[in-house]
Amino acid sequence: MTTALLVKELKQNQEDFEFYPTTAEMIEAIKNDLDTAEIGSRITLFEIGAGDCRVNQAIADHLDAKSVRVDILAIEKAITHIKNFPRNVKFVGADFFETNLVAIKSSMVFCNPPYSEYECWMERILTQTNASVTYFVVPQRWQNNDAIKQALSESKMTAKVIFEGDFLEADRKARAKVQVVRVYKAQGLPKGQKFYIGSATSADVKSTLFDGFDEAKEINESHFDEAQELIATGGCIDSMVAFYNKDMDSLFESYNAMAKMDARVIKLLNVSKHTAIEAIKQEIKNLKNAYWSEFLNRYEPITRRLTKDSRKKLYEQVLDNAKEIDFTAKNCYAITMLVIDRANEYVDTQIKDLFVKHANSDNLKAYKSNQRVFEKGDYRYCHPFANDEIIKHYECSKLEYRLVCNWYMSRHSWEVSAAMYDVINDYRVVARSLGLGGCLVLNSQDDLSIGKKLVVKRMDFNVPQDENLFDITFYKKGTYHIRPSQEFALRLNIAIGKLFGWLHSAEQASHELDVDIEQVAPIFEKSNKIMFEQSTELLGIGFDGEAA
């Protein structure tokens, strides 16, 4: 997409936050400057106001040619840009002023800020980040700004202008006269020695508590349970964020109280002050991860599009850096839109995974032209074989109308309900991707019990009456039985056959699946991919689009 078209789209979406892309000449100046540096084998580039990511991609490509691995983190406010982030860019925040910069570890920072407020952007970046080097593209008058001079002095950094130019011939023209400024640690650096860019570090500020975390632990005696209920019942994001902020404030108060406590009192309690403070800090780190994990696994606009396994993969791709992403309404909105935009990428995989999940001789029947007979117990439940082996073994086969599968049976009742819900939801997600839309409703949440047949109905205004999509029964022995409707099973078998290359026409599908061509033809011709609505009104975000 050209810059002109991108700017037009940004304006249409009311997201033109002074987007003036860095020019090729400016990027070249930075690349040439980096050639004079000594750079470690792996660094983290943090771009603040990433826009279309042309800068971070150019720098990453340049350093990759020098065998330097570059991890990229980015803050960006415009959803139009976020949805188009390259896969190697990790989103860490939507709003510059709401993002805890101190917590974000980086080796190098780049920022081409809005020139109407460049002073406060420069000052905040200089005082709250601790990268080895920072590059700014800012108006020439920055050198006369007292606040910026003070920030440079306090951070013991040196500024060097490496390029002067303008946007008169840029992709998006402007009259501003700008400089590309390198800010780096020159103190103690011998004359003529290269400046150094090493591994990622965060700012050394005592009040900062988010400098890394392990996997989320249980958040005890907090508002987390209430937030879970809100997420599960479709509550607005603002309320969830309010619970998060209350929990965070409470932990901060505990930390500050412990930090101020007299060492003699701590000694009387036979507790190490350092150990106690570190425990509180760890709990604070866990909090972000816990809320983001729950949000991704329970927020309906996300769970209706992705199966449990797909959400896990997406978490690893998008939110594996959750320790750096504050749980704010704007970030929830940005993450949700990113998930929706990428959801179609998972549709095919989700259908294939469902086939593999049921791949055993009891659940499959060979196509008419497939003369092989699957032996009883062959590749049976919990087989250790790789997916490719399973698919090859059971090629040219279809799912039966009654399926048996394993599931995780926990000793804890709440885990049982959650596991049952995840299994049921996975089938609903696949059904939607096959065009069986509408509201797919379980009779009642109270019906989630072992040994009882649960029915999921399809409620659609385009259908004369409600239809049973599937029924499912869970058993204590760790299996469940599911019976998809004939419509669901037919759509699923056609999609499986097309995805694996077993079915190439409606006529072949009709013959192999032993179903009338009149039923097969309209289904076969339709794509099994769907486009999702992206309206904020459907997301239950809890604030208007302007806030995003």
From TrEMBL:
It comes from the Bacteria. Residues 285-501 form the DUF4942 domain. InterPro entries: DNA_methylase_N6_adenine_CS, DUF4942, SAM-dependent_MTases_sf. This is DUF4942 domain-containing protein. CDD domains: AdoMet_MTases. The keyword Signal does not apply. One of its GO terms (molecular function) is methyltransferase activity. Keywords: Methyltransferase, Transferase. GO terms for biological process: methylation. Pfam families: DUF4942.
